[in-house]
Amino acid sequence: MSGTAFITRPDCWLHSMGSQQPESSDRLTEILDQIKGSGLDGLLDMREDVPQVTLEQLYRAHSPA
C-alpha cells in the first residue's frame, strides 16, 4: 500500500458546480483514466469505499454558504 491515496465516492460524479466551474464528472473521469492509463493506480491507495462526510466535517473545509 502506498503512502498516497486517491479517495473518491461514486456520488462524487453527481456533483455539479455549474458550467463556469472546472470541477465536473467529466474532469473526474479524465483524472481517473489518466491515473489508470499511466499505471499510477498500482502505486496509489485507491479508495472508493469511504463513508460519506458529515456536515460538521464538510464545514471544516467549506463554508455553509
Mind explaining what this structure looks like?
This protein is of the alpha+beta class and 65 residues long. It is 28% helix and 9% strand. The protein contains 2 helices and 2 strands; from the N terminus they run E-H-E-H. It has a two-stranded parallel sheet. Strand 1 (5-7), helix 1 and strand 2 form a beta-alpha-beta unit. The model has no long low-confidence stretch (mean pLDDT 86).
**Beta-strand percentage?**
5-15%
Q: Give the helix proportion (percent range).
A: 25-40%
Overall 3D shape? globular
Give the spatial strand order of the biggest sheet: 1-2
What is the helix/strand order? EHEH
Main structural class: alpha+beta
Average pLDDT: 86
- N→C terminal distance: 37 Å
Radius of gyration: 14 Å
Explain the layout of strands and helices.
Layout: E1 5-7, H1 25-38, E2 45-47, H2 55-58
Q: What is the gist of this entry?
A:
The chain is an alpha+beta fold and 65 residues long. The chain has two helices and two strands.
Key structural traits:
65 residues; alpha+beta; two-stranded parallel sheet
